[in-house]
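Morning!

This is the sequence you dropped in the shared folder:
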Amino acid sequence: MACDGLPQRHTMNLQSDDFTLFDLPRTFAQDRAVLDQRWRDLQRQAHPDRFAASPGTAQRVAMQWSVRINEAYRRLKDPLRRAAYLCELHGAPIEAESNTAMPAHFLLKQMEWREALEEADSAAALEALHEEVRHSRSEALAECGRLIDQQRDFAAAARQVRALMFITRFGDDVEDRIDQLGQ
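The structure's back. Tokens below.
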């Protein structure tokens, strides 16, 4: 193990991108089992408890590494966050707060969904809407993967990520309504 708490096979610093940190390819498609194993390996080596008897400096460095590893893991394991991160790494920031432009067909779909949610008066109607949103999210994630891994079109992928962000938020709204109906 290197003195910084990381495996010797890595020559790393805290500013390495998440993919480099986890020794993974910079792709949208990732094997979750491999990602989980890399996280466990890195945490085992850098966990602050391993340095409890070490001087304060080693403990602080281990804590920094542990926080950095966990931050990267959260970003890489979530497909939406991973897609946004890849877009940003390739010069196509998401800018969701300032860039809300969406294709007209997607804006119409948003309006249809909002109306359907407002009008839903039964568990069956809400479940049907929830299933439609899950299906749309799955299709949008697949398109994101295609844009990133096959076409390497990060600007288009960033637009797709913004749409995915809406779909995810709307799915949460539907789940909240389902929960309210069940109370």
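Headline: Residues 1-10 have pLDDT under 50 and may be disordered.

More detail when I'm at my desk.
O.
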